[in-house]
Amino acid sequence: MDQEMAHRWLANTGDLIVEHIDEPDGRVRLYYLSTMADAKVVYNELIPKLRILQLEDASIAEVERQLGVASSNRVYGVQEAVSRMIQNCIYVHVQDAAYGLAIPSDGTAGRNIQAPEVESVVLGPQLAFVEELHVNLSIIRKYMPTTHLFHERLAVGKEIPIDVSLLYLENIVDPENVNTVRQRIQELNIDSQLDSSILAQYIADNERSLFPTLQITERPDRVVHGLRQGQVAIFVEGSPFALLGPTTLLQFFQSPDDYYLRWVLATFNRTMRMFAMILSLLLTPVYVAALTYHYEMVPADLLLSLAQSRSRVPFPPLWEAFLMEIIIELLREAGARLPTKVGQTIGIVGGIVIGQAIVQAGFTSNILIIIVALGALSSFIAPSYMIGSTIRVIRFPMILLAGLLGAMGIVIGFSFLASHLLRQTSLGRPYMYPLYPVRFEDWKDGFIRAPLSSLWQRFKFLNPQLKQRFNREQAQIKKDIDE
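^ Spore germination protein, sequence as received from the core. Prediction below:
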């Protein structure tokens, strides 16, 4: 590949660097992109090693031996050489040689490994994935040093291909799950920005559903746990989040911290999350339905307080509730989009000031402020940001149905919600497992978290090849040191 041909393939590329090792003939040249490759490798390693050779008579085999390059790094053709340079490689060209050499060298800026920000960690490893794919894969390899961990690299997009990696334990995972994920990714023909969350929408069973069917996580311990259970992990170059699938609705309310706590505490936390989800969906709709149609359901003492609180409110309960829910969502979105310090100020001060001003102006009642705040707080308890956002969106049609039809509207809303969830699948697996189909043996790691010694079976939902995680009888044996 001569210099003119390199510039023709990389037209309008101001960061193409060509180094002539043996001036003035330039029989051996180095080609690389200054924005992608590490220049220190060029000047501190490659050039000193090459100058030791008698370059006038050196063959490509001698150059390959001197640089210690594996045969897998041989490059044939200009197009392949340019492709490898774009992928952070330094291309070594020897005149009249049958092939060239691609030396891996990543000089791109990266982010240091830090503690998770979206999924906060109480107990467990204090590290999260980063945007570099090879770093994320090395983290998983560190936690799972086994030859059974398979890694498949796929490319999505023709004009601008993006690397996508599949990870799974080949002795545990159901091959059908791997084939489903692989087929859906390979069938993609897109030329847009690709991130883990975007890829999840493309390969989801029903992209029109509000409920996420693939788990998005930045925590390596969650991915390792999923792989050991038989799930498939998906990583995308440039994304600090991984995908796990297939998954169930209950898994979105489970946290890796549950396995670091004693089983009673973990069960209590999971129960609280389920209760919070129901509370977030029901609290405001029940208030609207009771004050609009069902005064007889409210105790007499509480009814008097409600009447006094709403005596100055000019709006019916439906519009009063909608007004407060929208204000809460505006404050939440503003706090999320603004810089961290300003966002915290907006969330705290804005909520207090605006809430107090609305009550004094007579636009809403004190009781509704409390109810809406409890409903919003309950939606934030979910460990997954995606499922928390879904609950907050569903609350609006539930409030509308309660305002139009009362208690019957709430029943109709829950009926439609249950019907929708029962029809959902994740990579072809039932989304509501173990509720539907009913599998009581998997409830011990669903609604509750049983003692670790009783979790000797893997999740049947995933149809793993190895059904047992360990021997149950041996795990329950307790012996003293002198026995």
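The longest strand covers residues 149-156.
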